[in-house]
Design a protein that fits this description.
1372 residues, alpha/beta
């Protein structure tokens, strides 16, 4: 700071490495670098390694431009690539501006001396700039790339000559109709070469339009050169016809010479063909002779082409031959054939030459598909563009294309900017593009033209090429490298870099620097260089006293050996066995045994043989019996990770203190959500989830595929198809193989044993579907198949159970909203699965099983931008699925699209491997305190062979770790790396349950029909088995409020509750209870529990008279009737009527009430009363609170709601000795149902099943509502409060907690902001006068009766946490 200071100014140090000549504590590099200077650096590339504070630097960069360069905030364009990143950037920037302004306005002390670092001087003028920026912050231009393009197209509609009201559309939803229209009009109705090619594809390649459509959709937005670039079909036809006719003519002459056998077959039979190639040559000769025979019979040239493409004619023209003749042979090769036969061979060679000229290699089907795809792609693009133009619609790719076309001058030689370019440059002075490594050619063209080419404008891009992992979304690392080169040419300087990491501990960074340095991981010749980073937060540390656990811990896989009788038999068949057959014969006694580690295996072998084994035989045996299967290794790694996490969390350990995580906020115990496991494929996540569940570890998946993309949606589709066609054996067999029935393929051969019962069950379900009683259908399916119980108790797949229940909820909602029948529902579900229709906002999002205190499981791609104190890398041992379409860049860095080859050319394979290595870099840099890496070493004594197969993604990592391990672990006091062995014993198995019981559960079949229940003995009863399993295999229970309440009532009948009484056990729900549509919380008879004593006999008489006069009886059936009506009726229709009578007179309404009323066995006289109750319920103003100024609302006016929301609510649990939260300022929330201590074991995880009647949103708050049809003495506030507290307090607690979990209200701030409260509506009392009031009701809209029949409560956050504690103390 200068000696002269302005006493009215505030001096703020710049903290980002971007402005420092040499970052404090940074690692020295040889790369020339200097601080960013906004006066000189108009154009700049900033490369920020993972964790180096990229967003922080970006915010300070904006401040530099705002304060020093005096550029208004609204003139600084900020662009990033995701909505999430945009929101975070806005928040960080606004917070920084507020903090700066607050510092300036509150600082009355003398200015602080700032020395040694650059700073901002905030004087009076700059304070005004900060205030102006904050006041106008909502208009700050922070967009995604697509948001920016959409903005300028609308804002500058005249300049870009586009329509004002174009709508954004989803191409995948629009494309199918466009594609089918194109097929009908151009391919089926026309006689064109492309139509002929399409006919060949359909006829000879078993043309699958779905896969063709999928490939074309995928290619629509791709830019690149096709290789091979196949010719127009008519051009190829002409050229092939010429060659083929010559061959046909020669062949006809030869056939006339010998009518018994073709002369060429005779010639090849006496040719010295190599033994291995003889069969190939003769089979291709036969195929060609068949095609020639067809040509002689008049076959068209188009019929010959598919067979021609399927042949390998090179096997005829240049077969592999021996150098000498055997007895009976005459020719050494086809070149020695007589002139006529040789001419025939030359004609075949001409046909083969044509094929080679066009690179037509591969299977005939694949060639036809690739050919057709290339021929129709541009036509389909034009059709799609025309369809979108007619509809005034565009998609995200169109946004980029239109903007690119409008900013690039039509005359390439012109330097004059376009109208749109001028308009954008006038609005924005500077553009800052974040995550620039994820750019593509089109995006780069836009920013280059708008800002880079202008001498008055600024363009700053920031990113990290080491984190370029989104090529599958169109990101192009080559575009980034070319753009960086362009910047360097214009500025004559290298990219800026951030030198300090603020995410990871010092020990972690030392290890990562060692792994990634040296050029093996990021070769400099490929344009991406790893620069070592220093530690910006030395205080970060994971304090764990577990021995041999350092910052980077290697899980070293021990070799697994399986002595296989099959391998021994195979060796006996070989001419030269790999080891002594005598030795193998003696080892046959060990067949089937598994050993872990070389020493254990060799020790067992020598013990069996009773002698020493030579080094040569040891090597042979290790190679022979090594189990290299990556699937087995993956399971072993999963088990080891589960055990390691269990140890970290001290689960089941006498040592209760967990490791401590220390950061700049202080120290705290390690939590479940501090641990993350990263994997490549969803299947690996499922394997890991099962291992974690076996160890009792809570976990949740993060950002999986959509709800309709999983196996559960497809299995429900198979189920509905079978229900729709109950006598179709193929559909029934398909259903039998789903998880609903859990059969295996071998059981289908015995289908006759279950056919009658099974079809009977499907017919019953079909009847429910025909009656459109889908909720009962779905409930009955879950009940009869016992899917939930089997998945949770046997498979342990909580994720899958959540998906099934969620899917049934969504489908039931769609049935009600759209009035669908079964076949319409099947079609809708199929469209959802195929992505041809959007299921709606949030409908396709997966619901988390449990989101609190859970280990996080996610893919490596999903983890980008996140960080965790502890990270495990898992999976990746098996290779990725081969793509049918290959993308790569050639030597000139041009993008190539290869539709034929299943493998990228060898010289370009590094491009795929490089992205996999970048993905591993992203995964490894998520760790803050500890990183666990899988290490697959070499078989000892056989350094060329690994102990299991490793996918290409992990090969580089294992090479690095193998090279480092010997050097690292030889060092004493090594604080960076450590290791432990995986698989020194058999895989940890699940706690065993009686095999007979498990088998009975797995083989359980649904009962025939409820009317003729199957007689089960006590030991065969599945419900009893589930109950036994619940206690033998601690982990999951399934209960509900009504079940818990009923058990408590039974207990109360024997003994009154006391505050110190232990909570009663809760049994698992029976099959019948699981099938109930509504919870049985409303009795069949009119009873009043604990009604307070009446003040007078007259009042009691009023009550009795009132009850006797109500024509609608009480009971569960009436409750079900009213609930179903409230679920099905259209609120908008009831809103338009002025009275219950007017509404009931509507034909649709009266028909619905009459039908439902009759189904529930109620008389016609009750219909008007039912209509009155429903109308009053929805049209009476309800006060949403207990204060006079609380908002009022008629339910008929609700705009956003959710009816009958089923849930499986995860039972909260607390480790150790849970304590009951005692009474607080908010009232006594423990209640009589709480307990101070709980004996016996604690449920670690489970579900409460329930159905919330009604959820609605009003004034941005969520309200929970439950309908009650109880007959009460009166419906005044005190009466209904007494009824709720006496009978439904536990239900209120469960439903409130379930709603808070559902809407992710995981903090007091979110809860207070979003949750409005709970309402219990006693339907008979809504709009009625109180029994204690003598007032008459003139109108249902009278505010005097807003609380009649209504109980409202909004639990505080403290009460909510107490509910959670209370449920954790229940004994289930």
């Amino acid at each position: 700071m200068s000696a002269t200071q302005n006493p009215t100014s505030v001096y703020i140090a710049k903290q980002s490495d971007l402005f420092l000549d040499e970052g404090k504590g940074s690692v020295q590099t040889d790369i020339p670098d200097s601080a960013f200077n906004a006066d000189n650096d108009r154009l700049a590339v900033i490369e920020a390694s993972a964790g180096t504070g990229k967003t922080f630097a970006l915010v300070e960069l904006v401040l530099e431009l705002l304060l020093v360069q005096e550029i208004p905030l609204k003139s600084i364009l900020l662009v990033t690539f995701t909505e999430k990143a945009t929101a975070e950037l806005r928040l960080r920037l606004r917070t920084k501006l507020r903090d700066l302004l607050a510092t300036c306005e509150q600082n009355d002390a003398p200015p602080t001396i700032v020395t040694g670092v650059p700073f901002w001087e905030i004087n009076t003028a700059r304070k005004k700039q900060l205030k102006a920026a904050l006041l106008d912050f909502d208009s700050a231009p922070v967009y995604t790339i697509h948001g920016f393009c959409k903005r300028i197209l609308r804002e500058f509609a005249f300049e870009n000559r586009q329509l004002f009201e174009q709508q954004l559309c989803d191409t995948e939803l629009l494309f199918p109709e466009v594609f089918r229209r194109y097929i009908r009009r151009e391919l089926l109705s026309q006689n064109t070469p492309v139509a002929e090619l399409f006919a060949l594809y359909v006829k000879y390649a078993e043309g699958n339009l779905a896969t063709l459509e999928k490939d074309i959709i995928f290619l629509l937005s791709k830019v690149g050169e096709f290789r091979p670039n196949l010719p127009a079909f008519d051009v190829f036809q002409t050229e092939f016809s010429t060659c083929w006719q010559v061959l046909v003519s020669l062949d006809l002459s030869l056939r006339q010479q010998n009518l018994l056998q073709h002369p060429l077959r005779s010639a090849f039979e006496i040719t010295a063909l190599n033994e291995t190639s003889s069969r190939k040559t003769m089979s291709n000769l036969d195929l060609l002779l068949e095609s020639l025979a067809a040509a002689h019979a008049g076959a068209a040239i188009t019929e010959i082409i598919p067979d021609f493409l399927a042949m390998d004619l090179g096997a005829l023209t240049t077969p592999r031959c021996r150098k000498s003749l055997k007895s009976g042979e005459q020719w050494l090769s086809p070149k020695d054939f007589p002139p006529a036969e040789l001419a025939w061979i030359d004609a075949v060679a001409e046909c083969e030459k044509l094929r080679q000229n066009y690179n037509l290699s591969g299977a005939s089907k694949k060639i036809l598909k690739a050919w057709l795809t290339q021929q129709v792609l541009e036509d389909v693009r034009r059709e799609l563009a025309q369809a979108k133009l007619e509809q005034g619609a565009f998609d995200f790719d169109d946004l980029l294309r239109i903007v690119e076309e409008q900013v690039i001058p039509q005359n390439a030689e012109s330097s004059n900017p376009t109208a749109l370019t001028k308009a954008v440059r006038k609005k924005y002075v500077c553009a800052i593009v974040d995550e620039f490594q994820d750019t593509d050619r089109r995006q780069w063209n836009i920013f280059r033209q708008l800002f880079l080419e202008s001498p008055e404008h600024r363009l700053i891009v920031i990113g990290d090429p080491k984190q370029a992992i989104y090529s599958f979304r169109g990101a192009d690392i080559f575009t980034y490298l070319q753009a960086r080169k362009t910047f360097q040419q214009k500025t004559s300087r290298l990219a800026f870099s951030l030198k300090n990491n603020f995410r990871s501990s010092e020990e972690m960074l030392q290890g990562l620097n060692q792994i990634f340095s040296g050029g093996a991981w990021f070769p400099e010749k490929r344009g991406i260089l790893y620069q070592q980073v220093g530690c910006g937060k030395p205080e970060l540390k994971l304090k764990d006293d577990t021995p041999n656990r350092n910052a980077i811990h290697l899980l070293q896989l021990q070799a697994q050996f399986t002595i296989s009788g099959k391998k021994i038999t195979e060796q006996k068949k070989l001419k030269t066995p790999k080891t002594s057959l005598t030795l193998l014969a003696e080892l046959a006694a060990l067949s089937g045994n598994k050993y872990y580690g070389n020493e254990a295996f060799l020790y067992a072998v020598q013990a069996e043989l009773g002698q020493e084994i030579s080094a040569e035989n040891q090597s042979a045996l290790l190679n022979l019996f090594l189990d290299e299967q990556a699937e087995n290794a993956t399971i072993r790694f999963a088990e080891e990770i589960a055990l390691e996490i269990k140890a970290l969390l001290r689960i089941g350990s006498a040592e209760n203190e967990r490791p401590l995580w220390k950061d700049d906020q202080g120290e705290r115990a390690l939590k479940e959500q501090d641990i993350c496991v990263l994997f490549r494929k969803s299947k690996e996540g499922e394997t890991l989830g099962k291992a974690l569940r076996r160890q009792g570890i809570d976990f949740s998946f993060y950002k999986q595929k959509g709800l309709f993309a999983g196996r559960e949606a497809q299995e429900i589709l198979d189920l509905l198809e079978a229900v729709a066609h109950p006598v179709d054996h193929s559909r029934s067999a398909k259903l039998w193989l789903t998880r609903f029935f859990g059969a295996n393929i071998n059981e289908l051969a015995q289908a006759s044993t279950w056919d009658a019962d099974f079809i009977h069950q499907l017919q019953e379900w079909n009847s429910l579907a025909e009656a459109r009683r889908f909720r009962r259908l779905f409930d009955q399916i879950l009940q009869r198949t016992k899917l939930i119980e089997r998945e949770l108790l046997l498979g342990g797949d909580e994720r899958s159970v959540t998906n099934y229940v969620h899917l049934f909820e969504v489908l039931n909602r769609k049935v009600i909203e759209r009035h669908l029948d079964l076949f319409e529902l099947i079609q809708l579900l199929r469209r959802f699965i195929e992505g041809k229709e959007d299921p709606g906002e949030n409908e396709n999002l997966l619901r988390l099983e449990s989101e609190r205190d859970a280990v996080q499981l996610m893919t490596m791609h999903s983890a980008k931008g996140l960080e965790f104190p502890v990270v495990f890398l898992f999976g990746g041992l098996t290779g990725s699925l081969k793509n049918t379409i290959q993308f790569y860049h050639d030597a000139a860095e041009k993008p190539i699209i290869d539709l034929l080859n299943s493998k990228i050319p060898e010289e370009h394979e590094w491009q795929v491997e490089a992205e996999q290595q970048r993905l591993l870099y992203v995964a490894m840099t998520r760790a803050c305190g500890r990183l666990y890496l899988p290490c697959v070493g070499y078989l000892q004594g056989n350094s060329g062979k690994r102990v299991c197969k490793v996918g290409s993604g992990y090969s580089m990592l294992n090479e690095q770790l193998s090279m480092l391990s010997e050097q690292i672990f030889a060092e004493k006091n090594n604080s960076t790396f450590s290791s432990s062995k995986v698989g020194t014993s058999a895989v940890n198995l699940e706690v065993k349950i009686d095999a007979t019981q498990q088998q009975k559960l797995r083989e359980w079949k649904p009962p025939v029909l409820p009317e003729v229940p199957e007689s089960l003995t006590e030991t065969e009863n599945p419900n009893r088995l589930f109950s036994q399993l619940r206690f033998q295999k601690r982990g999951f229970v399934l209960s509900s409020f009504s079940r818990m309440n009923r058990k408590n009532e039974e207990k109360n009948a024997a003994q009154k509750w006391t505050n110190s009484k232990e909570i009663t056990n809760v049994e698992i729900r029976t099959a019948a209870e699981l099938g109930l549509r509504r919870e049985d919380d409303e009795g069949e008879t009119t009873q009043f529990s604990e009604i307070q004593q009446s003040d007078s006999a007259a009042e009691m008489q009023i009550t009795v008279n009132k009850l006797r006069k109500d024509p609608l009886p009480g009971g569960a059936q009436t409750g079900n009737l009213l609930h179903e009506l409230l679920e099905r009726i259209d609120f908008s229709i009831i809103r338009e009527t002025k009275s219950a009578e007017e509404w009931f007179e509507l034909s649709a309404v009266s028909r619905m009430i009459s039908s439902i009323n009759e189904r529930y066995g109620r008389s016609a006289e009750t219909e008007s009363r039912i209509a009155e109750i429903i109308w009053n319920t929805l049209r009476t103003p309800l006060r949403l609170g207990k204060t006079p100024d609380a908002p009022e609302l008629e339910l008929a006016d609700v705009k956003k709601d959710l009816r009958e929301a089923d849930f499986y609510f995860p039972i909260p649990h607390k480790s150790g000795n849970a304590e009951v939260i005692q009474a607080s300022k908010d009232g006594d929330i423990s209640g009589s149902n709480s307990a101070s201590s709980v004996e016996g074991w604690t449920i670690e995880k489970g579900f409460l099943r329930g159905s919330i009647d009604y959820l609605f949103e009003h004034e941005a708050k969520i309200y929970l509502l439950d309908w009650k049809s109880n007959l009460l003495k009166n419906y005044g506030p005190e009466s209904v409060e007494h009824e709720v507290m006496e009978n439904y307090e536990l239900q209120l607690q469960i439903y409130t907690l379930a709603t808070s979990y559902w809407f992710k209200l995981d903090s007091e701030e979110k809860y207070n902001e979003i949750f409005g409260g709970v309402l219990y509506l006693f339907l008979r009392g809504i709009g009625e006068k109180s029994a204690s009031s003598g007032d008459s009701i003139n109108s249902v809209n009278s505010a005097n009766y807003a609380n009649e029949g209504v109980y409202f409560k909004r639990p505080s956050w403290t009460e909510l946490k107490a509910y959670e504690t209370r449920l954790s103390l229940e004994k289930y």
